[in-house]
Specification:
Helix content: 40-55%
CATH architecture of the largest domain: 3-Layer(aba) Sandwich
Strand order of the largest sheet: 3-2-1-4-5
Shape: elongated
InterPro entries: Apaf_helical, Disease_R_plants, NB-ARC, P-loop_NTPase, TIR_dom, Toll_tir_struct_dom_sf, WH_DNA-bd_sf, WHD_ROQ1-like
Pfam families: NB-ARC, TIR, WHD_ROQ1
GO molecular function: ADP binding
Number of strands: 16
Protein name: Protein suppressor of npr1-1
Keywords: Coiled coil, Leucine-rich repeat, Plant defense, Repeat
CATH class of the largest domain: Alpha Beta
């Protein structure tokens, strides 16, 4: 503040209001100097800033329009600013530009002369009411100036050799960024359940470090669903989005290498937060966040992906934890009942749906939205349907990871889903290697992409992924299981074998009956001729099944035969 100007910044976070920062100042000498530089720096940081020269409509009285905007902010110049600070808890930052704050506090020096002129005008006022009003106004001015000068602000002296650019940077770093940390908040989810406990470790890690590490960032960018974005467009568009978010202007880039050069040149001295969501290829990372030294000290790069291998060079990796039953039920209830718990009479059926979803938020949201305001009978019917036909919206979202596999990885995934759940990984690897699938690396890729899990060296996968795999197998020939590549459902396998409808498309078949069977004559019996057309059959898993006929009908391509409770007699010869 000087005798000729007052510069203060006011911030407020609200979706209803247009501005983040209100700049109040006096004097044309700073309008095109310090104030304009501060305004530009705030805009470059991403804040919406009011300054009268940009927001006044042409043809309107400046003072009238300024007061109208101030009224929207509950401000009436400095008096209103301080009133809002006291009553509404708003932030006020005084900037003492080439003036001693003590002169403002005491209203001496140049300010004393200005107030003397006002006091003289008051004494010469003949109208008692107007004189009283002017006296009250002057009192409020003095009080406001004193209160403002007593605040912790910033002081730039004439003799101070510090560059104004650094001074403005200090203002933004130390005050504005702290007050406006939530500016341009990203949408997280309609119903946030179980988030806090899962992000605490991430927040703690991001907040740790040395003196160069920061909690607030000058610049930020959110690159949403990179996989989908790069499928629709190219990597250059991804780079343009990042650069535009940071520099607030559209760059001219003709190729990926040019974009990399611009990112390195412009970002290496800036503290930046970048969130790269859902990447699925290394080239995507290389194009936008290739190396640590592309960004200034204290920057943070957060990457989300379904492919664990893409995180090999990060400083730390965190795996998303599965929702527990309590969290899953709450999230489902928000979507199904618009409440944190199920409606009366729906608890048991809701628990069945939650169990079906296996803690997968996507499934809980989709099914909750599907079942909202439906009768209990409709819920039960939908559950029965899901046992045979998984919801298409869920399957299509889960399918994204599957589609990114190569042909042998896809085959391995489908084989595991149908025949090898709970089997020893090393054993399955040998069997699949016999099919020419390079299973050792293939299973590793599936695990890295969270399509299978390995616990105690046993293979497993989420139930909904297993259902998705079976949808993929059956969708090409719905209603004709004899044309499917893999047969696993007992009822459908029985029909195929009895009708001898199996084709050369069948690569694997499993038919298991419960045990024990007292006599082999009680076993389900099928003719070997049913296998005659299954020329590509690689896997055959039978349990308490009897085959009649000549075994020449079994295909020569058979790699793995598992026949539990085999009724055939055999002799063991020893030497």
């Amino acid at each position: 503040m000087t005798a000729h100007e007052a510069s203060s910044s006011f911030s407020y976070k609200s979706k209803l209001w247009k501005y983040d920062v209100f700049l109040s100042f006096r004097g044309e000498d700073t309008r095109n100097g310090f104030t304009s530089h501060l305004y530009a720096a705030l805009k470059d940081t991403g804040y919406q800033v009011f300054i009268d020269e940009n927001d006044l409509k042409r043809g309107e009285e400046i003072k009238e329009e300024l007061f109208r905007v101030i009224e929207d902010w509950c401000l009436d110049e400095l008096v209103k600013i301080m009133e809002c600070r006291c009553k509404l808890g708003r932030h006020v930052l005084p900037i003492f530009y080439h003036i001693d704050p003590s002169h403002v506090r005491k209203q001496d020096g140049d300010l004393a002369e200005a107030f003397q002129k006002h006091e003289k005008d008051i004494r010469e006022e003949k109208d008692d009411k107007r004189r009283e009003a002017k006296q009250e106004r002057l009192k409020l001015w003095r009080e406001a100036l004193t209160k403002a000068a007593n605040l912790s602000g910033h002081h730039l002296k004439i003799a101070n050799n510090r560059c104004e650019t650094k001074f403005i940077k200090k203002i933004i770093d130390e005050n504005i960024c702290e007050w406006l940390t939530s500016t341009n908040e990203l949408h997280v989810a309609k119903h946030i359940v179980g988030i806090d406990s899962r992000i605490q470790d991430i927040i703690s890690y991001l907040s740790s470090g040395g003196s160069n590490d920061v909690l607030m960032f000058e610049f930020k960018s959110f690159l949403a669903d990179v996989r989908d974005a790069t499928n629709k467009h190219d990597l250059v568009d991804l780079q343009k989005k990042l650069i535009s978010d940071i520099l607030k202007k559209k760059p001219e880039i003709s190729c990926v290498d040019e974009g990399i050069g611009l990112i390195k040149q412009q970002f290496r001295h800036r503290k930046i937060l970048v969130i790269v969501d859902n990447i699925d290829k290394q080239e995507q990372l290389d194009a936008v966040v290739g190396r640590h030294d592309w960004f200034g000290p204290g920057s943070r790069i957060i990457i989300t992906t379904r492919d664990e291998r893409l995180l090999l060079n990060v400083d730390r990796a965190c795996q998303a934890k599965k929702m527990n039953e309590e969290e899953a039920l709450e999230l489902f209830s928000w979507h199904a009942f618009k409440n944190s718990c199920p409606n009366q009479g729906y608890l048991e059926v809701s628990e069945k749906v939650v169990s079906y979803c296996g803690g997968l938020p996507l499934a809980l949201e989709v099914l909750g939205s599907l079942l909202i305001k439906r009768s209990l009978a409709e819920w039960e019917s939908q559950l029965e349907k899901l046992r045979s036909y998984p919801d298409g919206n869920i399957v299509n979202r889960l399918r994204i990871s599957f589609e990114g596999l190569d042909s042998s990885e896809k085959a391995i995934f489908l084989d595991i889903s149908c025949f090898f759940i709970g089997k020893d990984k090393d054993f399955v690897t040998k069997v699949l290697d016999g099919c020419g699938f390079f299973a050792s690396i293939g299973i590793t890729v599936l695990r890295e992409r969270c399509l299978v899990t390995v616990e105690g060296n046993k293979l497993n996968m989420h139930d909904l992924l297993r259902k998705m795999a079976r949808v993929i197998i059956s969708e090409k020939s719905l209603g004709h299981p004899g044309k499917w590549s893999r047969l696993w459902n007992r009822r459908e396998v029985i029909n195929v074998l009895r009708n001898k409808s199996g084709t050369e498309e069948v690569e694997g078949l499993a038919l298991n009956f419960p045990d024990p069977w007292p006599r082999s004559s009680n076993m389900r019996s099928f003719c070997t001729e049913a296998f005659a057309n299954m020329k590509k059959l690689r896997f055959l898993h039978l349990k308490y099944v009897q085959l009649n006929g000549e075994y020449k009908h079994l295909p020569k391509e058979l790699i793995w035969l598992c026949w539990e409770g085999c009724p055939l007699k055999f002799k063991v010869h020893t030497r």
